[in-house]
Structures are given as structure tokens and as C-alpha cells.
């Protein structure tokens, strides 16, 4: 998708749709609360797109060009939509097959409660570094860690924040990551030099996050751990619990490491989990057949596409044994589609380019250049709802400015990663924010403040630049 647009649009016309959208979303969320994702936020995004469309027509931009860009935007999210559906199917089949209960059971046996939160950061970092994907990390170990955190009695917002912090750290530092490769490519940097240069800001940020989660964990250990640990032993009354069930997530992770298409990898995870259900969960099958009056095929199909509830005598366990399958992802998909329509209109009328050019014009100093880059990335994440555009648009717009200041392209590639890649998950209607919220079943507003690595990364970048620490110049070896 080209980011070039020769149409002229004023800064006022570019910013007004974004400002109106944010105001309307704030009002809507204050009225509907958590249920705003059930449809009202989606309409607000469409309304925002309509306002942007009017400004486009006002600036004599052809409606067919606007709709063409919207169409291209929607095409770009076809793969994420399929992934979202498969993740929903994954959560359902991994529940009935005993994979998630086994993760929770053995996780509680092995985890040191006093260091659970920093463990979430480390585990997520390792998996994301190996797979190159924060999305796959959340869909595999993230689901298990959330379940363990819930069983331990932790606030799910902080557990999600720890998982996301680790996942995005590993994603950023992995040579397998698509965003890491894209940031290096769009800025003209060498991939491995880019990764090495990112350590200057990324390592201090993840260390600060680890320190916070460790201290918080030590000072805020949940009270109901002993009681819940007793309940966990009751899992064996409903599921066959065994390490052999971990073969399924290991296969999925191995496929992703081997760069097999994530859609294929997740689909294999769904099918193998369904097979494991038939092989290992005979007692559960009999229980569900007798209670619900359905056969094995229906049990599997329901776990894939719709709501699954394993009823127990313990309320705590019944809350754990619940999944909405593919159906549970539909509101998120609806939200992503609506957001991409708004982003498509904003891109087609030249608003995103105009904002980036304006921010570039404010960059009178080195720290001003870095600040403008960060603001541009964040603005695109808000308005275009896509982390790839938040990398590509500022990367193209600011490339010449960095060269003119005799700054190495590594400065640009690192900055758009520190601000474009990691902040996408902090915006509820961004594809990343919507995805993580749905997979981990935690609202963005609940994990926002705890996703320390993500919101602290651009701040760390500005601190490093203001100190003049290792600012690489073009002629430096």
C-alpha cells in the first residue's frame, strides 16, 4: 500500500477527525464501560471515518480513491482476522483437551508465587524471542500464564501487563520478528546492527519493568493462594492432567520458530488438541455427553466455534473452565475492521502524511527530531490503527531528516521500534490492542499502566537522546 498522496490538506482538517474520534470514544466508554466493545465503539469509529471522509471531500479528494484505500486496508488485515478466529478456536480446544488445565496445574506446582510476575516477563520474553511474535506468545504461553495468575488470585491487569511487556521485548529483539525486519528495512539499516543498537534503550527498559514486577509481587502477594491451591487439586476430577498434553503447544511453538505460516501453525494446534481430547479426556467426554445430551463431534465443534463451560462444584474452577471459541473473537474482529476503515480514510485524504510533515517541521534540534518521530508513530497508531503503518509512514517521512543531521539510520529504526511497535498494544482499537485484549481476556484500560515496557520505551529513548549517549553518526564505524 503506497503512502504517497499528492493531495493538499490542512493540518486543522487532518487533526480534527482524530480529536473528535477520541472525544466521542471517551464519552462512549464512560457511558458503556467494558461493554463498549460490544458494538458502540465500532460505530464511533465508523462515525469518525465519516467525519474524515467529509473533510476529504471538502479537499476535493475523490471518493473512489478513499474507498480504494479502505479496501486495501481491509485486505491487509485478512491474515490477522483468520489468526484471531483460530486463536478463539485454540482456546476452546485447549480447554476441553486438558491443555490449559494442565498448564495451570503444573504451573502452580512449579511457580514460585513470590516471583510469579517477573517469571511471566521472562517466560514471555523467551518464547517471543524464539518465535519472533508477540501474538503467538500470547496465544500459547500467555493463555496459560493468565490462567495461573487467576488461580493464584493476582489482578489480571498486572498479569497481562507482565506478559505483554515480556512478549514485546522478545518480539523487538528477535531477528525473526516481522516488525523488527520492517523497521530495519524501511530505514535502510542492517538488521543485526539494528537489533544491537536497540539494546541501548531496550535492555534498561526491560530491567526497570522486571524490577517493578518483582517488587510489586513481593509486596502484594495474594491472600487466597492457599485456598485456591487446594481447589487446583480438584482439576483431576474433571480432566486428565499430564505433561504429555504439552506436546500440542510445543508443536505450535516449533512450527512458528521454523517460520511456518502462523495460520497453518495455529490450525495444527486446533486439530491436534481435538485429537488429544478424544484420546485422553474420556471421563470428561462421558460427563458432557450425559449432562448436555450431545455427542463427541458436537463437543469438539462447540469448543471451536462457540461457548464452552465445564461446570464444577467449585465456582472458582467453573470460572477457569470457560471459553468463547471463535464466537468470542467476533466483537474484536468487528472493532478491527471499523478501526481500519477509519485509518483507511485518514490515509487516503493525506491526513497522516500531513501530520508527519508538520511534526517533522517542528524538529529544530536532535531531541526535537526524535520527539517528532515518536509523536508521529504514536499518532499513526491511534489514527491508522496499524503498527505496520506506524513504522512505514514515519520511517519514510523522517529518513531524509536523519541523514541531513548526519545521524545514522539506526537512530531512526530504533526510534520507530521504541514508539511504533510497542505502543500499538496500548490503543484499544489498534489491531494489536484489540488482539491482546481478546486473547488474554483483559481490557486494554486494565493492563495499560502495567504494560511498563511498552509505555516506558519511548520515554527511555528520549532520556538516552537527551543525555547524548551513543548517538550514532553516519560516518562512525
Written overview of the protein:
The protein has 477 residues and is mostly helical. The protein has a domain at 79-329. The protein is built from 24 helices and two strands. The protein has helices spanning 11-32, 40-58, 63-76, 78-96, 99-110, 116-131, 134-152, 156-173, 178-187, 191-219, 225-233, 247-257, 262-280, 282-292, 296-305, 315-320, 330-348, 351-361, 366-384, 387-404, 409-423, 431-440, 444-447, 452-467; strands spanning 308-309, 322-323. A two-stranded antiparallel ribbon has the order 1-2. Helix 6 runs antiparallel to helix 10, helix 9 (178-187) packs parallel to helix 20 and helix 18 runs antiparallel to helix 19 (366-384).
Q: What's the arrangement of strands in the largest beta sheet?
A: 1-2
**pLDDT < 50 stretches:** 1-6
Give the SSE order as H and E letters: HHHHHHHHHHHHHHHEHEHHHHHHHH
Q: What is the overall number of helices?
A: 24
Nearest-angstrom radius of gyration? 23 Å
User: Count of DSSP E strands?
Assistant: 2
Task: Give a quick account of the main beta sheet: strands, pairing sense, barrel closure.
Answer: 2 strands, antiparallel
Structural class: mainly alpha
Shape type: globular
Q: How large is the share of residues in beta strands?
A: under 5%
Helix content: over 70%
Q: For the residues shown, what is the average pLDDT?
A: 89
Q: What's the N-to-C terminus distance?
A: 35 Å
Amino acid at each position: 500500500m503506497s503512502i504517497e498522496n499528492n493531495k493538499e490538506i490542512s493540518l486543522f482538517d487532518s487533526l480534527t477527525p482524530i480529536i473528535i474520534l477520541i472525544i466521542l470514544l471517551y464519552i462512549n466508554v464512560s457511558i458503556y464501560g467494558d461493554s463498549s466493545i460490544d458494538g458502540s465503539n465500532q460505530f464511533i469509529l465508523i462515525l469518525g471515518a465519516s467525519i474524515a471522509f467529509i473533510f476529504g471531500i471538502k479537499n476535493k479528494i475523490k471518493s473512489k480513491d478513499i474507498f480504494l484505500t479502505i479496501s486495501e486496508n481491509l485486505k491487509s488485515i485478512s491474515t490477522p482476522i483468520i489468526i484471531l478466529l483460530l486463536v478463539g478456536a485454540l482456546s476452546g480446544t485447549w480447554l476441553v483437551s486438558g491443555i490449559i488445565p494442565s498448564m495451570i496445574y503444573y504451573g502452580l506446582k512449579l511457580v514460585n508465587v513470590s516471583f510469579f510476575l517477573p517469571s511471566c516477563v521472562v517466560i514471555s520474553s523467551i518464547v517471543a524471542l524464539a518465535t519472533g511474535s508477540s501474538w503467538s506468545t500470547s496465544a500459547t504461553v500467555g493463555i496459560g500464564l493468565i490462567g495461573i495468575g487467576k488461580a493464584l488470585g493476582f489482578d489480571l491487569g498486572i498479569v497481562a501487563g507482565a506478559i505483554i511487556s515480556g512478549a514485546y521485548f522478545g518480539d523487538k529483539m528477535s531477528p525473526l520478528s516481522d516488525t523488527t525486519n520492517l523497521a530495519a528495512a524501511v530505514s535502510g539499516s542492517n538488521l543485526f546492527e539494528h537489533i544491537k543498537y536497540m539494546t541501548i534503550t531496550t535492555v534498561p527498559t526491560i530491567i526497570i519493568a522486571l524490577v517493578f514486577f518483582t517488587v510489586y509481587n513481593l509486596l502484594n502477594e495474594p491472600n487466597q493462594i492457599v485456598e485456591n491451591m487446594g481447589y487446583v487439586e480438584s482439576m483431576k476430577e474433571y480432566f486428565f492432567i499430564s505433561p504429555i498434553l504439552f506436546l500440542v503447544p510445543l508443536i505450535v511453538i516449533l512450527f512458528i520458530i521454523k517460520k511456518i505460516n502462523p495460520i497453518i501453525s495455529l490450525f495444527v494446534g486446533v486439530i491436534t488438541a481435538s485429537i488429544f481430547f478424544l484420546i485422553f479426556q474420556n471421563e470428561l467426554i462421558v460427563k458432557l455427553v450425559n449432562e448436555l445430551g450431545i455427542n463427541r463431534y458436537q463437543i469438539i465443534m462447540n469448543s471451536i466455534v462457540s461457548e464452552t463451560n465445564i461446570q464444577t462444584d467449585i465456582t472458582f474452577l467453573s470460572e477457569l473452565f470457560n471459553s468463547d471459541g471463535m464466537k468470542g473473537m467476533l466483537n474484536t474482529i468487528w472493532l478491527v475492521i471499523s478501526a481500519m476503515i477509519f485509518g483507511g480514510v485518514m490515509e487516503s485524504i493525506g491526513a497522516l502524511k500531513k501530520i508527519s510533515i508538520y511534526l517533522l517541521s517542528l524538529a529544530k534540534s536532535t531531541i526535537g527530531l526524535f520527539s517528532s518521530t515518536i509523536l508521529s508513530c504514536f499518532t499513526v497508531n491511534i489514527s491508522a490503527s496499524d503498527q505496520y503503518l506506524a513504522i512505514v509512514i514515519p520511517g519514510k517521512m523522517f529518513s531524509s531528516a536523519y541523514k541531513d543531521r548526519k545521524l545514522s539510520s539506526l537512530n531512526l529504526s530504533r526510534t520507530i521500534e521504541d514508539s511504533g511497535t510497542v505502543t500499538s498494544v496500548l490503543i484499544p482499537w489498534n489491531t494489536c490492542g484489540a488482539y491482546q485484549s481478546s486473547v488474554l481476556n483483559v481490557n486494554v484500560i486494565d493492563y495499560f499502566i502495567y504494560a511498563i515496557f511498552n509505555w516506558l520505551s519511548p520515554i527511555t529513548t528520549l532520556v538516552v537522546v537527551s543525555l547524548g549517549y551513543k548517538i550514532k553518526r553516519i560516518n562512525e564505524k
